[in-house]
């Protein structure tokens, strides 16, 4: 049967894509940003670690959805997805190839598990999805894994609670475990960490809060489920709420999940860069 072997969390800062696309990784500013992923790039190409499929949790930035259509949870079930034009042309990255059979299986399982998923059969994917792939896999002609996009609304309130996201992760794990094909599956949660892009607090970064969140992904993950929206807003800025998407990933792993790698770097644009790799210990 299919199995989730690892979880990965990362910020999806657009500037990471700029550094990779423009081959600026050796510049003093960008070098420590991309170095956060050096360990992961070496780890993921090992045969025992390389996934067949990545379930990639991300949020759309008004590329596929806008104020006319705001799904709380949406899963892409088409065969492929093109990179979005976010105002300056499409990123020079490969088309995202889906494992459509597993995606449809997960969609059915989640809906029968009382999650009202929106099923998407045509959707362009923006930096929220493509930047994490670039950070880990670089600039290949084709992505070396199949990718199931799962978009979460963390842009327009009301957004789902951390606990609801955790429960969705648990339901995804049940769905994957019931798929009969032998697949190595990873689940990636993206977004965050603390940042605010506008208003009087633009540029806010809360290193202490971020580090405790990283600690508690393995030390006390149950605490993270109960963090209220107002705490994310107060402590991590208006965009810090993206970290609830990390909890979908964490909820899909066992309680014994083990930290393999961690990176944290400030500044990356006006955002705190956070990155974790967790082994799913049964």
Explain what the structure shows.
The chain has a single domain (3-266), classed as Protocatechuate 4,5-dioxygenase, Chain B, CATH 3.40.830. Helix content is 32%, strand content 21%. It has helices at 14-21, 31-35, 38-44, 100-112, 127-137, 162-177, 207-216, 221-225, 229-236, 244-251, and strands at residues 3-10, 53-58, 73-76, 80-81, 96-97, 118-120, 146-152, 184-190, 258-268, 271-279. The strands form two sheets. It has an eight-stranded mixed beta sheet, with helices on both faces. It is globular. It starts with a strand and ends with a strand.
For this entry, give a set of tags.
single chain; 282 residues; alpha/beta; Protocatechuate 4,5-dioxygenase, Chain B; 8-stranded mixed sheet; two-stranded antiparallel sheet; 10 helices; globular
Order of the strands making up the biggest sheet: 6-3-7-2-8-1-10-9
Total of domains: 1
CATH class call: Alpha Beta
Return residue spans where pLDDT drops below 50 for at least 5 consecutive residues.
none
Number of helices: 10
Supply Rg: 17 Å
CATH topology descriptor? Protocatechuate 4,5-dioxygenase, Chain B
